[in-house]
Every structure is written in structure tokens, then in C-alpha cells.
UniProtKB/TrEMBL annotation:
The protein, known as: Corrinoid adenosyltransferase
Keyword hit for S-adenosyl-L-methionine: no
GO annotation, biological process: cobalamin biosynthetic process
Catalytic activity: 2 cob(II)alamin + reduced [electron-transfer flavoprotein] + 2 ATP = 2 adenosylcob(III)alamin + 2 triphosphate + oxidized [electron-transfer flavoprotein] + 3 H(+); 2 cob(II)yrinate a,c diamide + reduced [electron-transfer flavoprotein] + 2 ATP = 2 adenosylcob(III)yrinate a,c-diamide + 2 triphosphate + oxidized [electron-transfer flavoprotein] + 3 H(+)
EC number of the protein: 2.5.1.17
Domain spans labelled Cobalamin adenosyltransferase-like: 3-170
Molecular function per GO: ATP binding; corrinoid adenosyltransferase activity
Subunit annotation: Homotrimer.
Length: 189
């Protein structure tokens, strides 16, 4: 099997259902950002410290779920041959919320913004958080033009919160303190 199709030579790509779109299309941009995030999570897993390797399985699960999100973003609403993978039945937003609550209970309380960084793992998790937020903005831009699977947007929204909580927890695991933003007023109550 050849991995090149030559469709991209003219700036186009074929999505699920055989629709051909420009690579600059909002749908392609949205699922491309999710793909970028998935790759970043792969790098993050490869770079986990001995103490943060406890996050490996759930990060791998997140990669699986990101593939599902990307697949669903590549399915046009008028495609009657393909069904969405990501559904409420999966309840992965609840799973992320449980992880967020678990990690928040294990880190020092903060009322102020913190600088993204700390240990290498924490810094990478913060980076994943910001890439997630960019993907979310691109998904929202797509939603303004055409409908998508709403569960994808909910999952991506919660995923950025997960990465924040996991970054703080990674700092605790690695014995590194978060650094508060010096000009932050209390924002978390």
C-alpha cells in the first residue's frame, strides 16, 4: 500500500465519506490540531520521568480518545454511511473530571495563576494544555459554520483542565514547586 495519494499536491485532502476539502478547511484544521496534540502526548509519554511514569497508561488512553475525536471531526454531518465513535455512552468527560479531582486533591492549594513549567513532565503537560486550547478554538470556529459531534468539544474542553491538573501533580511527583505568577490576584476560590 502506498501512503501517498497525490491529492495533497493540489492542496486538497479526502476526509471520511470521500468528500474532498482544501487542507485549509476549518474541518481539516480542527482535526489536524487534534492530531498534533496526539503526537505531542506521544512525545510526553516518551519523556516521562521515573516518578511520573504512573501517568503513562492514562495518557495512552487519551491518545486513543484523541484518535476518536479526530475521526469524528473528519465525518461531515451529512455523511449517512459513517457513525460517530465518540458518544456520551463512553463517559470520558466524567473520567477526566475524576482524574482532575484526584490530582487537585494531591497538590498544594493555590488561589493564583501559576507559571507553566516546573519539571520536564509538568512543562510538557502545560504545553499539551495550550495545544488543547488551540484545538478547542479551532473546533469552535468549525462549529460556527457547521454542526459537529458535540461530545468531541466537551471532551477537548475538559482535556485542557486535565492537563493543568496533571501538570501540577507531575510537579508534586517530581518534587518541584509550582511558581506563582507574581502579579496574579486570587482567581481560584
Amino acid at each position: 500500500m502506498k501512503i501517498y495519494t497525490r491529492t495533497g499536491d493540489k492542496g486538497k485532502t479526502r476526509i471520511i465519506g470521500n468528500n474532498v476539502l482544501y487542507k485549509s478547511d476549518k474541518r481539516v484544521t480542527a482535526y489536524g490540531s487534534v492530531d498534533e496534540l496526539n503526537s505531542l502526548v506521544g512525545v510526553l509519554i516518551a519523556d516521562l520521568s521515573d516518578k511520573t511514569k504512573v501517568l503513562a497508561d492514562e495518557l495512552t488512553e487519551i491518545q486513543q480518545l484523541l484518535f476518536d475525536c479526530g475521526t469524528d471531526l473528519a465525518i461531515a454531518q451529512d455523511d449517512t454511511k459513517h457513525e460517530f465513535i465518540f458518544t456520551e455512552d463512553y463517559k470520558y468527560v466524567d473520567w477526566l473530571e475524576k482524574k482532575i479531582d484526584e490530582y487537585t486533591a494531591k497538590v498544594p492549594k493555590t488561589q493564583k495563576f501559576i507559571l507553566p513549567g516546573g519539571s520536564k513532565t509538568a512543562a510538557s503537560l502545560h504545553y499539551a494544555r495550550t495545544v488543547t486550547r488551540r484545538a478547542e478554538r479551532q473546533i469552535v470556529s468549525l462549529v460556527q459554520d457547521e454542526p459537529i459531534n458535540d461530545y468531541v468539544l466537551k471532551f477537548i474542553n475538559r482535556l485542557s483542565d486535565y492537563f493543568f491538573a496533571a501538570a501540577r501533580y507531575a510537579n508534586v511527583l517530581d518534587g518541584v514547586e509550582d511558581i506563582q505568577y507574581r502579579n496574579s490576584k486570587p482567581v481560584f476560590r
